[in-house]
């Protein structure tokens, strides 16, 4: 076991190494994917990335519900 000054140096070296790994890792895919989901269905609260997908979802999953006004001009 390392003691004293050697232990402190080892901890500092490990902290620096961990910081570099975290910095080089960058963005992870989960947060990027979650940020891309911008349209939310008002009926079931599921999220879609674009209006085309949102309209397809709405027409297939909620056929009896009237189309929201933001989807009126969108072509599916």
From TrEMBL:
Primary subcellular site in the record, as a coarse category: cytoplasm
SUPFAM superfamilies: Expressed protein At2g23090/F21P24.15
Family annotation (InterPro entries): MBS1/2-like (IPR045230), SERF-like_N (IPR007513), ZNF706/At2g23090_sf (IPR026939), Znf_C2H2_type (IPR013087)
Record carries keyword Cytoplasm: yes
Domain C2H2-type: 39-61
Basic and acidic residues bias: start-end ranges: 17-31, 52-62
Record-level GO BP terms: regulation of translation
Keywords: Cytoplasm, Metal-binding, Nucleus, Repressor, Translation regulation, Zinc, Zinc-finger
Subcellular location: Cytoplasm; Nucleus
Residue span, Small EDRK-rich factor-like N-terminal domain: 1-37
GO molecular function: zinc ion binding
Keyword Iron included in the entry's annotation: no
Residue numbers spanned by region Disordered: 1-31, 50-76
Name of the featured protein: Zinc finger protein 706
Organism in which the protein naturally occurs: Culter alburnus
